[in-house]
Amino acid sequence: IAGIIIFDFQYFVWHMTHHKVRFLYRHIHAVHHRYNSPFVYVTQYLHPWELVVVGVLTTTNTWFFNSHPLTVWSYMLLNIVVSVEAHIGFDFPFLLHNLDPTGIIGGSPKHDMHHQKPLTNFQPFFNHFDKMFGSFCPPMSAGGKKSKALLDYEKKAKDCKKNM
C-alpha cells in the first residue's frame, strides 16, 4: 500500500511537470496524448524515455521496503491492472472506482477527462493530490453527460480565463 501511495505521488509530480513544461510535453509526453479518447493499448503507448522512467519508479518503490517477492509481484500486477483500467475507455460497474464508496479512486472516467482536458487529473490512481493542488476536474458520466460538478468546474475555468 505504501508503494502504491508513493508511486501515485511520484507519478503525479512527474506527470504534472511534463504537462507544465512545454519542452517535456512536446517532445516526450505528447506521444501518449495523441489519443484524446483512450483505449487499452494507449496504456503503454509512450515515448521510450517515459516508459523507462515510469518503469523504474514502479519497480524500485518496493525495493525500499525490502518487500517479499510475492508482495512485489502483487504490487506490479495491481499497477498494471489500474493502468489498463484507467485507459480502458469504459465505465463498467465492476471497476475499482465504482466499488470504492469514498470516491478516492480515480478510474477511467477521470483519466478520460485528463485526455480531454490535459491540464487536469494528473494523478494515476487516486484523487487526493489532484484535489489538494487544484488540478482535479470532475469526470463526465456515462454517455457523455456532464454532471453538475463538471458544469460548475467549466464555468469557473471560463470565468478565470475571461478575467485574465
Task: Note down, in words, how this protein is organized.
This protein has one domain. By secondary structure, it is an all-alpha fold. The model has no long low-confidence stretch (mean pLDDT about 85). It has eight helices and no strands. It has helices spanning about 1-20, 20-25, 50-60, 70-85, 95-100, 105-115, 130, 150-164. Helices cover about 55% and strands about 0% of the residues. Keywords: Membrane, Transmembrane, Transmembrane helix. GO terms for molecular function: iron ion binding; oxidoreductase activity. One of its GO terms (cellular component) is membrane. InterPro entries: Fatty_acid_hydroxylase, Sterol_Desaturase_Related. It comes from Arion vulgaris.
Please tell me the overall pLDDT.
86
Number of helices: 8
Number of domains: 1
Overall SS class? mainly alpha
Total beta strands: 0
Q: Label the overall shape.
A: globular
Estimated helix fraction: 55-70%
Rounded to the nearest angstrom, the distance between the terminal CA atoms is: 42 Å
Could you tell me the radius of gyration in angstroms? 16 Å
The proportion of strand residues reads under 5%
Biggest pleated sheet: none
* Poorly predicted segments: none
SSE sequence, one letter per element? HHHHHHHH
